[in-house]
Amino acid sequence: MPHEKTNPDFQHRSDTELAADFGMLGYPDFSHLRDAPRNPAESLLDALDRPDLDARLVEALPRLSFNFQNMNWDCLISQAKLRNRQNRLGFVIAERRKFQRRISDWQMRMPYRRQFREVPAV
Question: Which one is predicted more confidently, 113 or 62?
Answer without folding.
Answer: 62
